[in-house]
Amino acid sequence: MKINVSHIAKLANLSLKEEEKEKFEKQLSSILDYVKKLEEVDTSKVEPTPQVTGLKNITREDQTIPSLSQEEALSNAKNKHNGFFKVKTILEK
Amino acid sequence: MNKTKYQPVIGLEVHVELKTKSKMFCGCSAQYFGKEPNTHVCPVCLGLPGALPVPNNKAMEWCVMIGLALNCKIPLVSKFDRKNYFYPDLPKGYQISQYDEPIARNGSLKLKIKNEKLKNNLEKTIRIRRVHLEEDTAKLIHQFGNQKSKIKNQKYEEFSLIDFNRSGVPLVEIVSEPDFESALEVVEYLKKLQQIVRYLDVSNADMEKGEMRLEPNISLREISNVKFQIINYKVEVKNINSFRFVEKAIDYELKRQEELLKREETPVQETRGWDENKQKTISQRSKEEAHDYRYFPEPDIPPVHWTGNQISNIKNQIEELPSEKLERFKKEYGLNDYDAEILTRDKTTADYFEEAVKIGAGHMIAPKQIANVVINKKIDISSTLPAHLITQIASSKQTATLSDEALEKIITQIVDENPKAVEDYKKGKSNALMFLVGQVIRKYPKKIDAGGLRERMEKMLQ
User: Fold this and answer.
1) Number of neighbours of residue B378 by Cβ within 10 angstroms
2) Which positions in chain A touch B294 (Cβ < 8 Å)?
3) pTM more than 0.90
4) ipTM over 0.95
5) Strand A84-88 with A80-81, pairing
6) Are strands B120-135 and B139-148 parallel, antiparallel or unpaired?
7) Which of B56, B285, B305 lies at the smallest CB-CB distance from A62?
8) In this structure, which of A42, B227, B234, B335 has its CB flanked by the most CB atoms within 10 Å?
9) Measured between CB atoms, does A68 come within 8 Å of chain B?
10) Do B73 and B176 fall within a single domain?
11) How far is A36 from B22, CA to CA, in rounded Å?
């Protein structure tokens, strides 16, 4: 199976070197080929399974509980400024 | 240049922030406006590893309510999904949203579009594809710092500051079909939507505060063969954060596309942002490739199952909606379209009017008369009680009988009986006039408006 590694790397926010691209392309292809074996199983009568716990309707009431303090929230931040997290600008979204 | 005519094809995504007490998936306060940055945050809305989201029941009920108010079907099963992309306002690297099983789908909203040429209103139905629930992102403030940059050829380093107070606030997304054909229709739809969520009391929907946001996707198609032509591009416009910009941004974008098409170029499929300073839309191209969100079911949140009973309970909580109220006002109170529309624009005014009508009935004051006063005199309903308004109308009503002969007679009589006071008044003693007015009021059998009477006697004694 052919894979567009550059596209996947971009989606995953990774920058890869050329030799890495080649290497991962091979690896990812072989993984996909392996997983493809599942297609041999007849699943026409099986429901998709996004959940395995059997739980449903786990919700909470609309009540507030105390939040972290600003100091706690920022305690692991690499860069901060006046109570904000600070990052390099990415103007385009 | 070709002479082909084009028809706008516009679809809308509208985001509405719910006014729940707490956030969508955690117990942090959702009331973030004007608060100190990063003080309404916890491991869940900061996206810290291992934190588990638990949906806010009220937010889900309100989303159902919005769906019902927009005539949607509510599927009995719904689930959350992860929408993956990288941006600093999204700490987890994904937004919890809904993909293929939204809370509500297949609704519609009826609009009245004013036609200036024909001087009438055209009714138009906008189809609503889906209504779903998601979490808001953090707020970014872009700053251009004054530190020397370490990067070559770049003088200053540029920074963004992040405030996570908004991260995780419940957000309802309402997606329409591409049924709009003008900016005017979009504005009408937005006003209507805003009115409905305010009537439901689930959102303040203030655009300037970002509580209601819209993203139109805009294309043009040739008018000649509407049915067969496939439109092969669409342009999404972001950053329209005021009612005032909606029309300008859409009209600008329509004109830009028409110019391209007339030169036989196809507009690029892309996201553009409205720049209020430059009065134009500007390309935000970089996003194109990233439009691959790789949605998959949110494994941390079990599916939502509604019972028919729950849905009808929510339905019962919906009070009369604006369009129903408008029709009832016309029928019940004999108002015209114009009056009924103004009085039902917001619920407070509508309630005020009805309260006044109730009290007015005891004073033989017609609803139409109350409507006229409320609308034309621009009554400040926050400071004038309905009962007080009725007293005012009642007394001015009696003032209208001032011209009758009986009053005329009494005034002449009082003037004749009090020559001294009349003389004093003519010499400039204004108190003397008040004495005469008082005498008339005392003699007159009905309650009359003193101010009106004074004016009248002033004129007479000139």
Assistant:
1) 8
2) 11
3) no
4) no
5) antiparallel
6) unpaired
7) B56
8) B335
9) yes
10) yes
11) 44
